[in-house]
């Protein structure tokens, strides 16, 4: 399986833009890994999240605000020979971000964060009532380190396969 390191920021952000869910890794209160899938927004090196006020992750973040966020768009099943099981692989991309969580308290900053988050899912504009904004916790991850990879076999075109068989 071939792995390619991606360093171009535009390519990395393109991978993030293809995702609808990311996975956020925390350290739980016992020191163990704790990973959850989350909806998100992304803009200019900052990842935006929102949670209910009763979420258990805030006790974890109070103890350790450092997180790891992984993005991986849906992969593609590829193979070199349809008849050989070991030639099958998943072709995919991934981005891993590490950073520190910051809580967003100011109402207009929360609304702005919600706009960024919603832009990941729709082109519509929204109005957020004061009670709705007050009753959620908005938090950001300022990305300190971002790495990306593309991995798996490259898909082989069917016309190439057919030409090989005929030639």
Question: Would you mind describing this structure in some detail?
Answer:
- With 167 residues, this protein is α+β, with helices and mostly antiparallel strands.
- The chain has a single domain, classed as Pnp Oxidase, Chain A.
- The protein is 26% helix and 41% strand.
- The chain contains 5 helices and 9 strands, in the order E-H-E-E-E-E-H-E-E-E-H-H-E-H.
- Strands 1, 2, 3, 4, 5, 6, 7, 8 and 9 form a 9-stranded antiparallel sheet that branches.
- A hairpin with an 8-residue loop joins strand 7 and strand 8.
- The two termini are 27 Å apart.
- The model is unreliable at 155-167 (pLDDT under 50).
Mean pLDDT: 87
Helix content: 25-40%
Low-confidence stretches: 155-167
Q: If classified by CATH, what would the architecture be?
A: Roll
Q: Separation of termini?
A: 27 Å
CATH class: Mainly Beta
How large, in whole angstroms, is the Cα Rg?
20 Å
Strand content: 35-45%
Count of separate structural domains: 1
Q: How many H/I helices?
A: 5
**Count of distinct strands:** 9
Order of helices and strands: EHEEEEHEEEHHEH
Helix/strand-derived category reads: alpha+beta
- What is the CATH topology descriptor? Pnp Oxidase, Chain A
What profile does the largest beta sheet have? 9 strands, antiparallel
**Rough outline:** globular
CATH superfamily: Electron Transport, Fmn-binding Protein, Chain A
Structure characteristics:
single chain, 167 residues, alpha+beta, Pnp Oxidase, Chain A, nine-stranded antiparallel sheet, 9 strands, 26% helix, disordered C terminus
Give a short synopsis of this structure.
This protein has 167 residues and is an alpha+beta fold.
């Amino acid at each position: 399986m071939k792995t390619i390191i991606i360093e171009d920021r535009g390519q990395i952000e393109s991978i993030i833009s293809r995702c609808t869910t990311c996975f956020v890794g925390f350290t739980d209160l016992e020191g163990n890994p704790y990973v959850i899938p989350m909806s998100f927004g992304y803009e200019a090196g900052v990842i935006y999240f929102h949670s209910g006020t009763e979420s258990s992750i805030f006790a974890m973040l109070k103890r350790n605000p450092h997180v790891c966020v992984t993005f991986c768009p849906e992969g593609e099943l590829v193979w070199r020979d349809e008849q050989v099981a070991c030639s099958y692989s998943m072709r995919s991309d991934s981005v891993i971000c590490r950073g520190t969580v910051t809580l967003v308290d100011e109402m207009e900053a929360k609304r702005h964060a919600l706009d960024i988050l919603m832009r990941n899912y729709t082109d519509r504009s929204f109005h957020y009532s004061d009670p709705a904004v007050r009753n959620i916790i908005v938090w950001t991850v300022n990305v300190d380190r971002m790495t990306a990879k593309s991995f798996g076999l490259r898909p082989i075109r069917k016309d190439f396969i057919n030409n090989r068989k005929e030639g």
